[in-house]
């Protein structure tokens, strides 16, 4: 009896790790939250037919390290930001502080098929340095907050959960709406001393402006006694090329002599980019504490330079991170909570389509291979993020007793 109870708790905690099936935005590389929960049960890892589960997820990060490729631009932390009262030079790195909360709802349509809804709310701050026409440089902040892009998904267990107690695989399909604003503006000081209501950077916008769909996968397998391996991930397809939000005037590309080579139209509006996420690791129980589990995982997530579907003539900061993640999950009764902290040990801001277009224009008039230029922008990344998720199993809401309140358990329509 105790052995079966321990086994059910262990599988429930594995399901809790799947509740953390989301990405953590990387700062200027605008990887957005992809929330969603999966069921936790004392009798297995599935959400039985007719049962509900609700939960919430919170994520926070602070990005401030600038990278071009995998090379950190350390000077951004110490120079370019003017001087403080003691004459010490300050850095001009862009700092992003992000807080995001997801409300999650799941329902068991059958014992193998479940439906999920994730409703996000975000509050983002972008701190940057202004170089005025006159006077000292100074740092200021702008903000973007509000409802994010709501996501609806369905997941199906490939193998029968009644017989597959040591491992299973779920495949899923999700729809990401464009409910979050992608054109939030805020008041920002200008170099001429004025203050204007301007478009916020895409990295802090609540939404990306695109309606997309995701292919999802998650699974687990018992590897040794009470140790399980797990994997989960997705790819979000965002077919819309651009959300139309204005970034800047079109870039005029010139050669070293100042001759105009071309005007990069299209790249002055923000993209609705694809994004991807993969995670795999192991978890196991802690001694005799049957409700407590520890996990260790590797993560790979980011935004590609080119979308799988649709056009690519729009502005984005593509890149990815590779992280090692530690986590702890605890369950008591119908409640479960998990804390996961991924540390990004590889940060890579890859060449964007805009970078390559500018590079090709400049190199089109250079015949000496040794003098050809390489164009690659930078992006700010976080060292780590803090992720907390909570879930509560409601059970069945509509049952025989509920139906009796209305005087009948059968439909009046024949």
What does this structure look like?
- The protein is mainly β.
- It has one domain: monomeric porin ompg (Porin, Beta Barrel).
- 8% of the residues lie in helices and 51% in strands.
- It contains three helices and 22 strands.
- The strands form five sheets. It has a twelve-stranded antiparallel barrel with strand order 1-5-6-8-9-12-13-18-19-20-21-22.
- Strand 1 and strand 2 form a beta hairpin.
- The radius of gyration is 25 Å and the shape is elongated.
- The two termini are 46 Å apart.
Can you give me a brief rundown of this structure?
With 414 residues, the chain is mainly beta. Helices cover 8% and strands 51% of the residues.
**CATH architecture identity:** Beta Barrel
- The CATH homologous superfamily corresponds to monomeric porin ompg
Report the span from N to C terminus.
Answer: 46 Å
Decide which structural class fits the backbone: mainly beta
How many structural domains are formed by the residues?
Answer: 1
Helix fraction, binned, reads: under 10%
